[in-house]
Write a structure and sequence with these properties.
Low-confidence stretches: 99-112
Number of strands: 3
Radius of gyration: 15 Å
Helix content: 40-55%
Order of helices and strands: HEHEHHE
Mean pLDDT: 82
Largest sheet: 3 strands, mixed
Oligomer: single chain
Distance between the termini: 25 Å
Shape: globular
Structural class: alpha+beta
Length: 112
Amino acid sequence: MNTFPDISVYDQVWLGVSWMPGIMKLPLERLVLVNHRHRVHNQLAIDSLLAMFRSIIKFDIQYFPQPEPGLQWLTDYSARLPALQAEWDAVFGPGPAPASPLEAPYRHQSER
């Protein structure tokens, strides 16, 4: 979400009506949202969607400022991550630049 423009009200409605119900049907265990803390508008928009679906969200959701820490979390910090990333890059092209080690993830608890 770091490269997205601010999510419009129309898009927020579309996400709530079309996208979120589809995501709820997937057998997800974890969901990573990459959104730098300076992108407050989009984080608030996504947080409001998550709040609407909180009662049916069955997976853990975490915010990360950059993709790399999110990938590490998704793979449980697996030693295989560099090989998996190289395989992905070979098929789809290089991914985003590595994250700064100083940027810590922001954890969003989907159920409390």
